[in-house]
Amino acid sequence: MWSSIFGFNQWRVAVLLLLMTVSPSFSGKCLRPCSCDLKKLTVACIGKNLTKVPPTIDEITVKLDLRKNDLQELPRGSFQHTPYLTHLNLQSSNIRSVREGAFRGLGRLVYLNLAHNNIDVLYQESFDGLLSLKQLLIDHNRVEEVQPGAFTQMGSLNLLSLTHNRLVYLPNMAFQGLLNIQWLKLSHNSLNNLATEAFASLFTLTRLSLDHNELQFFPTQTMTRLVEVTHLEMSYNPMIYMGEETVSMAKLTHLYLDHMSLQDLSDGALIHAPLLSHLDLSHNQLRSLEPILGPRELSFLNLTGNPTYCNCHLRPLREWAQVGQVKLLGLCAGPPHLSEEPLEAVDPADLRCRGREGLTKEELEEAEEAGAQLLAPPPKPQKKVGCPDNCECEPEAQHATCEDRGHTKVPQGFLKNTSLLDLRDNHFHNVPSNSFRGLAKVVSLHLDRCKIHEIEAGAFRGMKGLLYLYLMENDLTSLEPDTFTGAPQITYLHLDGNRLTQFLSAATLAPMPSLLELNLEGNAISKLESAGMLSSVKMLRALYLANNTIDSVVAKALDPAPHLDKLHLEGNKLTEVPSKALGNAPLLRELHLSGNPIRWVGPKAFMPIAQSLQRLYLDGTGLAKMSKDSLAGLGSGMLTLSLKGNQLESLPSLSSLTGLQEVNLADNPLLCDCNILLLRKWMDNVSLTVSATCGHPAELHGQSVKDVSVFQTCPEDEPSPSKPPLKAKGAAKAPKKVKPKPSLLKGGKPKMSKANPKPVESPKPSALPKPAKKNKKSKKIMQR
Ligand SMILES: *[C@@H]1O[C@H](CO)[C@@H](O)[C@H](O)[C@H]1NC(C)=O
Ligand SMILES: *[C@@H]1O[C@H](CO)[C@@H](O)[C@H](O)[C@H]1NC(C)=O
Ligand SMILES: *[C@@H]1O[C@H](CO)[C@@H](O)[C@H](O)[C@H]1NC(C)=O
Ligand SMILES: *[C@@H]1O[C@H](CO)[C@@H](O)[C@H](O)[C@H]1NC(C)=O
Ligand SMILES: *[C@@H]1O[C@H](CO)[C@@H](O)[C@H](O)[C@H]1NC(C)=O
Member of which family (predicted)? Predict the structure, then answer.
């Protein structure tokens, strides 16, 4: 169990020598029920039903094995009596919770095994103090949530293993602080959503295992952040298609995409993976494949277990492999005379299509039967029990799909252990009660684009395991209270792109107490008119209401929303920040209001959520003025402020927002005169890149606030703190009247100050704001 890959510890030699002389005192402290190995400084208390860490363990111990106990909770400072530990094994000890600071004091620990416990949340400071830890194993627990910051103090960690847990989502910066991580194992979870910055800051990671999850799309943006990754395991995710430029990973050499449901892989999918040498596409549904563009040194392409059809359409791939010396693995699935031939053994000249339109007779018949073109899904597997007509089932993967097969009724007769049921792009119109009888194991149900305008009460009854329900892009105009009754675990509900005119009533939501995400984007909801509209779904974390026609939000609309983390209201018709609705959403971190006609933000607009808010988006709202107290209450917790594409000439002071990582002020007509000196100084003071351009005066139009030198000539005295730092009107007019010569403003040697038209000596260096290096945050450019 103990790994011995770590360097020998000189300290241990010293201790060992010491012990040779004082050994009696050590063995004397080896109290029951534990057993001790004096030479190895090891203590083992395995399977002793211990309910807490024994306080009597000798201080000098370096390896402690507490497997198979009953510890339940690890309180703060659980190991403070054994500061020299390097290895700690806590497997199968029935641990439910690891409190903040549980391992504090274990600064020498290199190996920590917490596998096979019942841990469900990794708190922000659960692993505090483990400064030397190299391997952390948390496999086979129930982790559903990684709080951002959970790993911030683990700069030595090489391996983090979180396989066989219950992760469905990874938030931004989930792994921040892992400065030396090499391998991150997230296999065997239920991940279906990775925030774009989930892997940001993992600059040393070379291997990432994401196999056996529920990813339906390759998370292109998220992966692009992984600049050093060479090995990526994505096997066993339900992906169907990979389009152009899907993978953009400069150092990737090994990519495992086997055992997915790929029906098509665009020839340019890997165009930004230039170093790829091994590509595993085995056990997918690929009937043909074009030469793969991009990788220059591809040496293995594995197509084993695909229904590869060896006709003229495969010839380009075969020839390309021959020329490029790509080892092509796999067998022909047809036509009959080539069936079971290794792809490599087939002479390209034999890859032919006969008859008109390049189809053989068999192919024609087959294509007609499938009602599709040549690259249509593979020939129907022979009819099997447990797979309805005109559907395809993979019993082993527990997947069934009847996508786009013209079904007008929900097909019946799927295997009871089906876990993914894909019925998208059919024509159901109406979904009757009990349509999915007996499918208690389905986790993910796709009913997108099925022209559904009515769902009867209890349609999903019996779907006890349903977590993901996709109903987007149908024709629903309303939903009855019992629509979702009988599927109590629904966690992610997608209703975007329907025609709903009202928000779901509390009664409609009530049967889904586990709901975490509700997507209602692109509907026709015009008002949020009931107070407490989320009161029956208290777990809800993300509410998507973008692109509706919402023009008003009643006070206390979100009272309460105890777990709401993200609220998307962009693209609506709001004319003000709905401050009064936000009073009881204590964890709201992200608020999206872009694209609403909000021209003015008044005082204290964000006060109700000031304690929690981290990201605020107000782009393209036509915003012309912000009260100087509009950001009152917001402080160091704010990470992102986006005000792009507005009409702002000035801004309230941002100096209290000391934690900002991203600021976007682009495309605002900022008035560049001495009144925004403080903004300019603030920009130089923080080490992030702020994109801001001048709109006025005309001479400076379009120039970056950072580049103009007008500020060199401003009086050195800063405006008194009581004055609003950036003022709009009155003072704003002065420079327009003065009209300094452009040559004075563009670098050069300004001799006149606009605000203070006295001759000034050449600017003293001290008058120039100097970038301070205090802020450690990474730079971030937001413009574009
Ligand atoms: C641990 O507790 C269980 C149940 O309480 C008991 O059956 C078992 O014998 C105990 N084992 C030891 C080593 O005490
Ligand atoms: C190709 O895929 C098959 C099936 O997944 C696997 O058994 C085999 O090892 C792979 N071959 C190579 C060279 O990767
Ligand atoms: C699902 O059930 C079918 C039929 O009972 C069986 O053949 C298949 O192996 C099962 N799949 C799994 C993963 O257990
Ligand atoms: C809202 O609609 C606009 C315009 O159609 C589109 O560009 C944008 O992506 C939509 N936003 C969301 C979140 O769906
Ligand atoms: C610059 O940073 C220092 C220290 O963080 C702070 O005291 C000062 O107010 C800042 N100046 C501006 C103009 O934001």
Answer: Belongs to the small leucine-rich proteoglycan (SLRP) family. SLRP class IV subfamily. Belongs to the Toll-like receptor family.
